[in-house]
Amino acid sequence: MRKDSSEPLVRISKRATIASWKAWLIRIAALFAALVICAVIIYAITKMNPLKVYGTMFQGAFGTSKRLWVTIRDIMMMQCIAIGLAPVFKMRFWNIGAEGQILVGGCAAAACMIYFPNIPLGLLLALMAISSAVAGAIWGLIPAIFKAKWNTNETLFTLMMNYVAIQLTSYCVALWENPYGSNSVGIINPVSHSGWLPSVFGQAYTLNVVIVLLLSLLMYVYLRYSKQGFEIAVVGESENTARYAGINVGKVIIRTMAISGAVCGIAGFLAVSGASHTISTSTAGGKGFTAIIVAWMAKFNAWVMLLISALIVFLERGAVEIASAYNLSNHVSEMITGIILFFLIGSEFFINYNVKFRGAARRAE
Amino acid sequence: MIDITKTFGEVVANDSVCLDIVEGEILSLLGENGSGKTTLMNMLSGIYMPDSGRILFHGKEVSIKSPKDAFDLGIGMIHQHFKLVDVLSAAENIVLGLNETPLVDLKHVRARVKEICNRYGFVINPDKKVYDMPVSEKQTLEIVKVLYRGADILILDEPTAVLTPQETAKLFSVMRNMRENGKSIIIITHKLHEVMEISDRVAVLRKGKYIGDIATCATNPQQLTDMMVGHSVSLNIDRPDVGELRECLRVSGLTVVDKDGVTKLDNVSFTANGGEILGIAGISGSGQKELLEAVAGLQIVRSGGIQYTARDAQKPMELVGMNAQAIKAAGVVLAFVPEDRLGMGLVGSMDLSDNMMLRSYSKGKGPFARRTPPRHLAEQVIEELEVVTPGVSIPVRRLSGGNVQKILVGRELAQHPSLLMTAYAVRGLDINTSYAIYRLMNEQKKTGTAVVFVGEDLDVLLELCDRILVLCAGKVSGIVDGRNTTKEKVGLMMTRLSEEVKNA
Questions:
Q1: What angle, 0 to 180 degrees and rounded to 10, lies between the N-to-C axes of helices A287-297 and A65-90?
Q2: Does the distance separating the beta carbons of B9 and A16 come in below 8 Å?
Q3: What single string gives the DSSP state of each residue in B87-106?
Q4: Residue B54: enclosing H or E segment and its boundaries?
């Protein structure tokens, strides 16, 4: 017999394959584990019943019809940005400039609302959507062209473009200030609702849902079935292989970034026309960064992104609610979100690797 | 080693393997790719732990949990990929991680290194930086490093793969010296003639199982091959004569300078003809990669010309100045099997049919890629080249090296190329697969394709190729007829230019 000391405590080996139901089981187990840990921490700090706290979170996100629809609106916003980011991240182009692309898209939409309030609504909305997309695309194109021609670092470049966009938005806010001295634009066209996404079936946010789901479908098909989608995948996996296969890498980078920027610009349009009806430097509100996590966790599958967007928005909205209901600081909500994301991302390790403990290994023999 | 078993996931790399190592003997460990040679040796040197089985050392059971445990027992391994720190000197690399004394006493190290070199016949300069060393010297350094740590059992994993014939001869004489000094040596190799030349005993593994061992003097290459493969294999490589030659590629004065300003190809000129195999020999890094990539439109050419004549075209076409995309658009059917299979020829994380699509995705009208033809092609390649795979929708990275290469070669040949370029097409492949590749090259040659075959095994080059172009440091040191030249002559040309060879 071999002595126990010669055996390592845990053995980690890479799994060849894993059934998808098992993978999902692991993910769900991770979510539960995260909720348990959160419960322990909530109890330890506040001495409150964690189940009650979770109940309050649920109330906050879905409790009333209005809350439910605001949650849905926020999910759609997150989803829109995430599908915009999916193609570039699939190409392994680290675009952290979605914030800026959303802002310039929002500014373009707001400008149309302010300067052309009297043209027919359908035409105005189309004009807003197009100009938002174009503005976002331009914001995406600038770093892409520099990357393709001079191989500049896209991460720094797109990040810096965010600051330019914030300054540009500040300028627009000053320009369109209303009322004078408020340092904000206020609700645009509050009476005529010109340039507002109209209610459909009595719901203000129906069109948001329709537009984003349509974009999701288009992106899903584009990435999965089109020639350009295949080029994106090849460039992302290996630029060398792409060149070898006769793919013009620079062209793919520029084209993909234009698409990505355009979709993020449309997210800016939705934020202005379909949600806040105003523009400020906080219109993007960090969603451009959170959506990166959404896109990556979903491995760029548009439908999985929808699930993850829903989870993250639920956590955010629920956390805001418990913060106000129990008079806790906002950081508690961030903590809970952090713990849950940590467990979900960490669970991928157990999906890719098999971990056997010493005892279990011996029993198996 | 008794009853050693090791599994990776569902793959059984070693299945109840028993192996004896005798003091003062050179043992060859022979087996096809994926037969578990390296895994077995990694367990002896403490990289992996066996799942079950025992290791006895001088009759006493030991457990080797780390490379340090292995060194304590006097077992040292020289890996295929060297484990040296480039910016340190030879002596510094030798003492790295030893921590014998609180302060590194390089003077003492130098003296001991010198003593080891003298005893076994090495030549090494302890103060030379590793980045200044050619491959053979790095290998020598690895061996000295292991000996310095007092190893009595040395394991060499395919040591000759990176050496010229002359360097190999030198290595073998050193190995014999070590044997005289009572060291045990295990050498992993694919090359049968080396097994016959150097070893006292041969142990054969097949598909993770131990097949048997035999004294070298009592066997022959044919028997060893049969043991390794499990059935009879013919060891002759065909070189069919194809009557008509047609000029396909004329390279003249080709010069390539890389982005660091190093001249990789210097005034290279040659022609490649349809209906013949042009071999390219040279020490690795002599410009083979740049040459093929320049033709494929993946290298920026400083000067010179590359004229390509299609199968039934009258006039040649200039390829210099075109990138891969332009070459493809111009209708040049060029098949290229690059050295870096998963980094250039294929996308490791994509499945087999998507990899087939790399060459064909842009065909057909409309924005959508057609997925059916590549899937059929993948199925066809799997069947024709006997690719071992669970299916077409598995990432190509999961296949073994030989099967990866079959997928790549299969895809390239499916284009019906008029020019086929391969770089180290059989590197790391087992005998069976290698012969399958040689057969495919010959079939292409017979259909009038111009085949450019960059190789490293001179025996193969001499048997397979009609003409052999020898590169030395980016220059052509000569083009010889494969039918009437010798290994020694090509070996010399690889290290010196032909004028010098004549004078030598």
A1: 70
A2: yes
A3: TSBHHHHHHTTT--SSS--H
A4: strand B52-57
A203-A205-A206-A207 Cα dihedral, nearest 10 degrees: 130
ipTM, interface predicted TM-score of the complex? 0.77
**Number of continuous H segments (helices) and E segments (strands) in chain B:** 17, 20
For residue A93, which of A243, A241, A246, A250 has the smallest C-alpha distance? A250
- Taking CB atoms and an 8 Å cutoff, what residues of chain A touch B328? 246
- Answer yes or no: are the C-beta atoms of A103 and A136 closer than 8 Å: no
State the angle between helix axes of B165-180 and B487-495 in degrees (0 to 180), rounded to the nearest 10.
Answer: 100
Chain B residues in contact with A91 (beta carbon < 8 A): none
Q: Per the domain annotation, does A175 fall within a domain? A: yes
Max CA-CA distance within chain A? 89
Max alpha carbon distance in chain B (Å)? 76
Per DSSP, the residues of B198-225 read H-SEEEEEETTEEEEEEEGGG--HHHHH
Peptide bond into A179 cis (omega under 30): yes
Among chain B residues, the shortest Cα distance to A365 is held by: B52
Closest A-chain CA to B10: A16
Residue A254 lies in a domain: yes
What residues of chain A lie within 8 A of the CB of B323, using their CB? 243, 246, 248
Q: Please, what are the averages of pLDDT over each run of 10 residues along chain A (365 residues)?
A: 51 70 86 89 81 83 86 93 94 91 94 90 93 95 92 91 93 86 82 81 84 94 92 91 89 94 95 88 87 88 91 84 77 80 85 70 44
**Is residue A263 domain-resident?**
yes
How far is it, in rounded angstroms, from Cα A100 to Cα A91?
20
Q: How many helices (H) and strands (E) does chain A have?
A: 14, 2
The reply to whether residue A237 touches residue B323, judged by beta carbons under 8 angstroms, is: no
Cβ–Cβ below 8 Å for A226 and B9: no
SS3 for B308?
strand
Task: List all residues 6 or more positions away from B213 whose beta carbon is below 8 Å from its beta carbon.
Answer: B19, B20, B27, B201, B202, B203, B204
Q: What sections of B265-346 are H helices per DSSP?
A: 288-295, 324-329
Question: A139 is written with which tokens?
Answer: 């914001």
Q: B-chain residues within 8 Å CB-CB of A7?
A: 49
Domain, as residue range, for A143:
76-302
In this complex, the residue of B8, B328, B369 whose CB is nearest that of residue A13 is B8
pLDDT digits (tens, 9 = 90+) for B410-460: 999 888 888 999 998 887 777 778 888 898 899 899 888 899 999 888 888
CA B433 to chain A, closest CA, distance in angstroms equals: 24
| CB B340 within 8 Å of CB A239 | no
Looking at the 3D structure of chain A, how many domains does it have? 1
CB contact under 8 A, A244 and B52: no
Token pair, residue B155, equals 């394991």
Whether B369 and A225 lie within 8 Å, measured CB to CB: yes
- Cβ distance of B358 and A234 shorter than 8 Å: yes
Predicted TM-score (pTM) of this structure:
0.76
Inspect the interface and report whether the beta carbons of B398 and A245 lie closer than 8 Å.
no
Distance CA A63, CA A126 (A): 34
Q: Establish if A109 belongs to a structural domain.
A: yes
Instruction: Give CA–CA dist B226/A356, Å, rounded.
Output: 39
Burial grade of B373 (CB within 10 A; 0-12, 13-18, 19 or more): middle
Q: Convert the pLDDT of each residue in B173-216 to its tens digit.
A: 888 888 888 888 889 887 778 888 888 888 888 877 888 888 88
Which of B54, B296, B362 is the closest to A227 by Cβ?
A: B362
- Closest by CA to B146, choosing from B161, B156, B136, B137, is B156
Q: A161 and A154 in contact (C-beta within 8 Å)?
A: no
Task: Please say whether the beta carbons of A72 and A262 come within 8 A.
Answer: no
Mutation pick from B43, B325, B353 vs chain A, by most beta carbons of A within 10 Å, is B325
